[in-house]
Give the backbone structure.
Amino acid sequence: MDTVPPPGMARAIASCAVSLPAVMVSGPAMDRVIAELAGRNSVKAWEKDPWLGGELFLDLDSGGDAEVAGFRVHDDRDDGLARRPYDTARVNSLCR
């Protein structure tokens, strides 16, 4: 998208914001998650919008799943955004 969205659309997009699971936004994993999201979803025109500027976007597939910095997440209409388990040893290594 090369243009700033109209105010109503920008507000609607911003209203879809969700918090990432705590393990992804604390400790050493946080920097990796932020860097990956910032690098893969840059919408420069949106930076000019007061609702969307500075926000990071999580791109979900059609099933509501995404992978970010080694974490798998799933968005569910009833339960919200949650981390999907991987092998425990792998998760523990990401959080160090």
